[in-house]
């Protein structure tokens, strides 16, 4: 099968390469607060909540004038891991069984923060998918696009949503107000891709069966920030791990309430382009 991305996909790919191109492997430990790590994090009741967990909300919060404390990470593109061409990515083993070799390959010691970050990434990529979930770790742009095409349909033209900063200050956590009625993006299926810490760009992509609602939300921060944020609401959470951090943050039980969350700016949400 020949995979032929549309002009819009090529444009998004170019912009993504530009965003991630000026990287250094030694900075991957700084990315341990990536979205998927946050979503999979388990915390004990005695632990204080990490400010970075201020990304969760429920559908009842989706109304004009709602004020929420939210965390949007400030990442420097010059220190973000870069995307490798598929040929180069495929030439490097990507497996926890090869971790000793990879640490030597990237010149990291086994006790370094980078080694722990890589180990965590392999854990997320190799753990079994939960019920109703399809998952894939993409090590190149080509593999990410092809997997999204496989999930959404080989004859489907792809579009992508992200969180866009229209005006950004150095403040990561602040109160944001919803400025307009949130716009629901009607899609039959979607593929969400979250960045994971690694010497080069790795995306944890997954699709969850069941009802999931995608939104674009206009936010105004108390510091003057303006964000057009992408967010998703998972309407059925009864199959989720009872220790999922979202339940503690929102003070709800599995299956008792939908769980919604915002996407960081370096995450991608692939949808059929007909929905855009």
Short description:
The chain is of the alpha+beta class and 276 residues long.
Describe the structure.
This protein has about 280 residues and is an alpha+beta fold. The chain is about 25% helix and about 25% strand. It contains 7 helices and 13 strands. The protein has helices at about 5-20, 35-40, 85-90, 100-105, 115-125, 140-150, 245-250; strands at about 55, 65-70, 135-140, 160, 165, 175-180, 185, 190-195, 200-210, 210-220, 225-235, 260, 270. The strands form 2 sheets. Strands 1, 2, 5, 6, 7, 10, 11 and 12 form an 8-stranded antiparallel β-sheet that branches. A hairpin with a 5-residue loop joins strand 8 (about 190-195) and strand 9. Pfam families: BURP. Keywords: Signal. It comes from Datura stramonium (Jimsonweed). This is BURP domain-containing protein.
Question: Could you name the key traits of this structure?
Answer:
single chain; 276 residues; alpha+beta; eight-stranded antiparallel sheet; five-stranded antiparallel sheet; 23% helix; globular; disordered N terminus
Structural class per helix/strand content? Answer: alpha+beta
What spatial form do the alpha-carbon principal axes imply? globular
Strand content: 25-35%
Order of helices and strands: HHEEHHHEHEEEEEEEEHEE
What topology emerges from the helices and strands here?
Elements: H1 7-20, H2 35-40, E1 56-57, E2 67-71, H3 86-90, H4 99-105, H5 113-126, E3 133-138, H6 141-152, E4 158-161, E5 164-167, E6 173-178, E7 183-185, E8 191-196, E9 202-208, E10 212-221, E11 226-234, H7 245-250, E12 259-262, E13 268-272
Antiparallel strand pairs: 1-12, 2-6, 3-9, 4-13, 5-11, 6-10, 7-10, 8-9, 8-13, 10-11, 11-12
């Amino acid at each position: 099968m020949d995979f032929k991305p549309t002009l819009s996909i090529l444009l998004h790919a170019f912009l993504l390469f530009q965003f991630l191109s000026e990287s250094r492997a030694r900075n991957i430990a700084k990315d341990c607060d990536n979205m998927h790590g946050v979503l999979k994090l388990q915390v004990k009741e005695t632990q204080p909540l990490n400010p970075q967990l201020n990304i969760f909300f429920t559908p009842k919060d989706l109304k004009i004038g709602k004020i929420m404390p939210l965390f949007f990470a400030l990442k420097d593109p010059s220190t973000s891991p870069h995307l490798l061409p598929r040929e180069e990515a495929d030439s490097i083993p990507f497996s926890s069984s090869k971790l000793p070799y990879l640490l030597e390959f990237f010149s990291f010691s086994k006790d370094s923060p980078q080694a722990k970050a890589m180990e965590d990434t392999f854990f997320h990529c190799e753990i079994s998918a939960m019920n109703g979930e399809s998952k894939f770790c993409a090590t190149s742009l080509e593999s990410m696009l092809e997997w999204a095409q496989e999930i959404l349909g080989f004859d489907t033209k792809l579009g992508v949503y992200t969180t866009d900063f229209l005006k950004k200050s150095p403040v990561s956590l602040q109160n944001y107000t919803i400025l307009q009625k949130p716009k629901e993006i009607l899609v039959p299926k979607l593929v969400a891709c979250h960045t994971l810490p690694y010497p080069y760009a790795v995306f944890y992509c997954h699709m969850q069966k069941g009802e999931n609602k995608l939104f674009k939300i206009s936010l105004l921060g108390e510091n003057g920030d303006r964000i057009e944020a992408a967010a998703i609401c998972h309407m059925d959470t009864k199959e989720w791990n009872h220790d999922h951090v979202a339940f503690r943050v929102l003070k709800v039980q599995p299956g008792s309430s939908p769980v919604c969350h915002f996407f960081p700016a370096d995450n991608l949400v692939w949808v059929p382009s007909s929905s855009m």
